[in-house]
Amino acid sequence: MATVQTLDKIRESLERHLGKKILLKANKGRKQIITKKGILEKVYPSVFVVKLESDNEGCSRVSYSYSDLLTSNVKLQVFKNQDKLHVS
Question: This protein's superkingdom (predicted)?
Fold first, then answer.
């Protein structure tokens, strides 16, 4: 079972990547996996927020809990070359 310290370590590791471009893979159930590019925008005590790349004028944001990362329902990959992605 996940402890508070484990979730705190996940949050601290995400804080080091604030503002960086990431690839987000989220399991939405029934074999539906979405893959989006975005920027890690905010880190809160219970959740983190990703600003997604959008094709239109509007911008969308999604939030997930740290337990989603722990259970592998959500996976994040930080781009090594931070010039690859442009999010408005």
Answer: Bacteria
